[in-house]
Each structure stands twice: as C-alpha cells, then as structure tokens.
Amino acid sequence: MKRIVCILFVMGDLALQGSSYFNTITNLWYTGHQTNVLQMAEARLARNTNDIAGILMKASWDFAFSDAVVLSNSLNRVLNAGETVQTSCFTNVFRITRLDVVCVLNAVANETVAQRTADLAKQNRPGRWPHFIEELKALDADGYFNGE
C-alpha cells in the first residue's frame, strides 16, 4: 500500500512540474510503454539527427533493451550532442551525465554477455523511469519542450 501511495505521489509531483510532452514521455515509460517512447525519439531524430531529447530517449531505450555495442554507440551520441547544448539547467545536469556515461561505458566494455542479459532483465520492466530522466527534466525546465 505504501508503495502505491509513493508511486502516485511521485507521478503527481512530475505531472505538476513538467510539460505535457515531458509527462507523456515519463508516464509512458513508467507504465511499460517504452516502445512508444522509442517511436517518439525516432520521430524527433528523423526531423533532426542531433536533437538531444531524441538522443536521450533513444539512449534510455538502448540502456534497457539493446546489446552492449548499440548502447555504447548511443552513449557516445549522448556525450557528443550533450556538449553542444548550452541551456542553463541542462548544462548543470550534464556535468554529472558525462561522468555517468563514462562509467557506464567502462562497465559495459568489461561485462560479459550474461551480465548484460541480467542487466537488461532488470531494466526493461514497467515501474522504472528512463535512464536519462534527469536530463529530460532539465531540458523541460529550460523550456525545450514548449510547443510540443
């Protein structure tokens, strides 16, 4: 019961703070509709291959569903595209993101296929947030999703 109340509180908190686009992304992901988020990411990337939101959404997907090579490629895209974003909230969050991505790249390079498979089993179920939720939240705070 406590868990349900906590989940509802967190989802309500996000709904009050975020834009409708941000809320759609996070709610779809949390309820297990990650494929819909991937489709949204791919649509953004079809319009602009360097769209940081699309790259983060796709990297979150790869974190939860892809093999080590695909994940590494996505994480490198996050690093490259993230460096170009100059909005205040995102820039502050990206300092930590850079460290996270470097650590994950090192871990992925050293893990076995069995370990990666176990990681995927933990990541790709409902009730979890996208890996890059803080970065998406920072973009939302910067007004990145206004007009979406």
How would you describe this protein?
With 148 residues, the chain is an all-alpha fold. It is built from eight helices and no strands. Helix 2 (20-30) packs across helix 3, helix 3 runs antiparallel to helix 4 (52-65) and helix 5 runs antiparallel to helix 6 (88-110).
Q: How is the topology of this model organized?
A:
Elements: H1 2-17, H2 20-30, H3 34-47, H4 52-65, H5 68-82, H6 88-110, H7 113-123, H8 133-141
Helix pairs in contact: 2-3, 3-4, 4-5, 5-6, 6-8
Total beta strand runs: 0
Helix-strand string: HHHHHHHH
Overall average pLDDT: 88
Structural class: mainly alpha
Distance between the termini: 35 Å
Strand count, sense and closure of the main sheet?
none
Percentage of residues in DSSP E strands: under 5%
Provide a concise account of the structure shown.
By secondary structure, the chain is mostly helical. The protein has helices spanning 2-17, 20-30, 34-47, 52-65, 68-82, 88-110, 113-123, 133-141.
Question: Top keywords for this entry?
Answer:
mainly alpha, globular, 148 residues, single chain, disordered N terminus, 0% strand, 8 helices
